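fyi for ur records
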Amino acid sequence: MKHKLVLKQCSLAVALALGSSPLLAQDAATDTQAPQRVVITGSNLKRIDSETATPVQVVKKEEITRMGVNTVKELMDTLTSADRNALSDVGGSNSFASGASSVSLRGLGKQSTLVLLNSRRVAPYALADYNEVFTNLDTLPLDAVERVEILRNGGSAIYGSDAVAGVINIITRSDYKGVQARASHNQSTKNSQIHESTVALTGGMGDLSTDRYNVLANVEVYRRNATNWRSLVDDINPAYGEKFSAVAPGSGQMFGERGAPSTFSYPGNIIGQGALPGCETKNAAGLCVYDRFSRFQAQPSANRVNALVSGKLAISDTLEGFAEVLYSHTKTDYMSAYAIYDSTGSTSIWGDPRTSEQRTFSYRNLPATHPLNTTGKAAALRYRFIDDPGYRTTSSDQYRVLAGLRGNLGDYDWETAAGVMGSKTKDRSRGGFFSLSGFQQVIGATVAESDKDPSTADPLFFNRSYRLGQVNTPEVLNLLFPENGYDGKITQSFVDGKISGEVGKFMGNPVNVAVGGEIRHEKFNINPTANLMAGDIVSNGAATANASRTNSSVFTEANLKPFNSLELTGAVRIDKFKDVKAHASPKLSARWEATPQLMVRGTWESGFRAPNLTESAQSNKFSFSNGEPDPKRCDQAQRLANDLRAQSDALPDTDPDKQFKSARADTVESRECAASLASIVRNNPDLKPEVSRSATLGFVVEPVKGTSFSLDVWHIKRKDEIGLKSTAELLASEDSLPAGIVNRLPVELDRTFTAEERETYGVNDGPLASTSGMFENTAQTKTSGVDLSLTSRIATPIGRVDVIGNATYLLDYKIFAPNRNGGSWGDDLAGQHGTSKLTANLMGTLGLGAFSHSLRATLRSPQKLQYDYYDEQYTPAGCADSGYEPNECRVASYVRWDYNLTYTGIRNLTLSLFVRNVLNHRPPVDLRAFGLDGGGVTPQDLEDVQGRSVRVTAEYRF
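which gave:
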C-alpha cells in the first residue's frame, strides 16, 4: 500500500513567498476553545505538546523567585549545564571585557552559547574578552522575566551561528495589566558589608482581546556595594592559613589577625638600611610595612538600570503589530592595588602594538647619591605608590529597538520584524601600572643597570619631580599614572521574516513546514587610548577592531507523523558571512510516544560558529599571561624558596634579614611558579568556521499522574575551534616548537637566581619573556554526559508539594592537544579542576494557605586539583612536593541548602524571605585557586566568607 503526501492547494507558493525568523516563544491561540499551540525554543513550528524531541528546560518566574537569585547571571549559574567559572563582572577586573557577565553551557565557552531575548538576538558586549564576543547578562532585566527556556543542545539549524552548546531564550512578560513595585535586599549575616539591592517597577495597560492593545513597561535598578579583603580575610577558612604564610594566624600584625602586610610600603624601605623617615607602621624588625589587603578588592561596586517597553496592537482580526525597546546602563567600579617599585623585580616585558616590537621595563637600585640612601652604595628600594589613583571604571550602554507585524494568511502564521541594536562601552583605568614615558620623565631610567656600560647610570634616579614619601602634585601623578583604556562600539541592524503552517497530509496526519530568512549587518569598533596603542603603559596589552560585515540566512523546518505516535522533524539553515563560504546546518529529530506515559526522543544536528570580527579583522593583540609555572625553573625556585624560609625561621624576629628572606621566598616562588609573560597574537585571515556535531537520545516518562522524569544522553564534538594554544601547553612542549614561539631573556637578566644559586640549584635557562602566535583552527573538544530532570506534584494532607530537580552527569570532557605525541586527545577533564562530574539541584515547595515554603539543595561532586596532562604541579607527586596531603590535592564535594518563605496573606502584597546557605556550610578548600590565581596571597572565593545570607523581598500590586 502506497502512502501519498497530499499537499494543500497553493501551499508551497505561499510558504515560499514570505520569509522570517523565530516567533516569540508564546503566541495567543486563535481558537480559545482549542489547546494553545506555541513555539518552543529550538523550533520554528507551533505545537501543542510541551515535551519536544529536543530537550528544553523551562524555568518559570515562580521558580526564579524561590531560588532567591538577584540577577540574570546568578540565574544562569544555577543551571546544571552551565559553567560556574564563566566571566562575571565581580571577577572581571583583569579581563579585556571588564564590567560584564556571561554564560557558558557544557564548558564550551561563552561564544558557543546563544542568548536570546524573546527569541531574538541582543547586541553583544562592546568589548571583546580578548577574541571572545558574547552577550552581557547584566543588561537583561530579571524582574521582567516570565520564564527562561534552555535548549540543552545545539541550535544552529534554527538560530544560526553561535548556537553550538545550546540556546538560552529569556521570555519577558506579555499582556500584563496593572502596576507592580518590587524591592529586595540581600545581605550576608556573617559579613554585612556584602550586600546588594534591587528596586523594580512594572506597569501594563490595555487588554489585547478587548482593548485591542497592550503596553508593558519595566524599570529595574540594581546596586551592589564594594568591599575589600581586609574586612573579610580574618574570616577565611583556616585551612588556607595552614598552607599559605600570607594568611596564617597572626600574620596580619597590627592590621588584623590574618593578611600579612608588605614591606613594599610607604614611605618605603631601603635594603640594608631599613625604613625611610616618616613610616608609622613598622614590624618587629623595624621595617616599614603596608596593609596590602586594604587594596585587594573582594567585590566591586555595581550600578545598573535596565528598562524594557513592549507593546502589541491588534490591527485587525488577522493582523497584529508589535514593538519593543530595551535599554540598559551599567557601571562597575574596580579598585586596584597601588603600584610598587621593587629594585630586585624581574624585567617587565610587553609590546608596542604599532610596530610589534618588544618593550621592556627594568628595575634599578637607588643610587648611592640619593639623599635618602645612607648606605654609601647603590641599594635596593621597596616602595609603594599610595598616591596611585588605583581605579578602573567600566560603563556601558546597550539598546535594542524593533518593530514588526504578525498575522494569519489563510491557515498560515507569519511574522516579520526589523530592528537596530547596539552597545557602547567606555573602560578607563588609572594606576597599578606606570606610563613608560612618564616614569622616565618624573623618576628616571628604565633600562637595566650595568657596571660595564656607564651610559646606563642615572644619578638623579628617584630625585626628579616625583619625591619619595612626599606629597606629589597632580601634574606629576598624571604623567606617571595617566588614564588609559578602551572605547568599544557595536551596532547591528536586521530584517527577518517567517511563515509556517500545514502544507498537506501524510497518513492522515498534518505536515507542517516553516520557511524564512534574515539579513543582518554588524559593525564593531574597539579603540584603545593612544598610550595603550603606543605601548606606553608598562606590561599592558592592547586589542583593536574596526570591521563590518553583512550576513544573510535562509532556513526551513518540516515535521510529519508517519504514525500517530511518531513525529519526525527536519531542519536546515544556510548562513553566509563575509569572506566565509556559505555554511549549512542540518538537524534531524524524532519523537515517539511509545505509550501515553512514555515518550522516547532523539536528535542529531550540525552546528557552527563563524569567525567574529575581532578574529577575522586585521589586528595584533598584546596581552599578559599570569600565574604560569615555568617547567624549566619552577622546581628550582621552590627548592630555593624552601631554603630561604628555613633560613628565615632560624633568625630572631628582630633581625631585618628574617623578613627579607621570607619575603624573597614568596617572590621567588611567585616569579617562577606563577610567572607573568607577554603574549603576542596576530589575526588569521584564513580562518574557517568552527563546526560541531551533536546528538541526544533520551526519554520522558510519567510513572504516575503529576510526576514526570526525563533522561537524555548527549554528545558534542566541536572541531576547527578558533583559538590559541594555551601558554601552559606551549611551555610544556617548548623544546619541540620552532624558535620564536617561546622566548626567554638572557640568563644575565635573571632577577630570581644569583649566579651562585643558578649553579647550586641547576638553573640552565633564562626567565620567560613572551610567547608568539596567531589564531588557528587546530583545536577540538568533545564532551558527553547525561541530563536528568524531575517534576512532580504531590497532594498531601497538609498541602500540595511541588518538586523540581535537575542534574547533569559529565561522562567525559576532552581537549585535543596537537603537541601531545604528535597530536592526541588530552586527559579526560571530567572531575578535574574546574569541572565536577555531577552537578545537581532539587527543590521542594509546600503550599500552606497563604504561606509557601521551599527547600532547595545544590550539589557539586569533588574535583582533582590537576587540570590537563601538562599540569605537573598538581599531580599526586606534585601535590606531595608542595606538602599537600592526598585529601588536600582535591576540591571536596559540596552541598548547599537554601530556604524560601513566601507570604501572600495581605491583599496585593507578596512578602518573601530567602535564606541562602541555611546551614552556613563553607565551600570546600581549593588550594589550587588560592595558590595560582591568588598567588598564595589573595583569597579567591567570596562565598567562603559570605556564609549564610538573607534576602528580603516585597512586591505590591496597585
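Residues 552 and 631 are 48 Å apart (CA to CA). thats all i got for now
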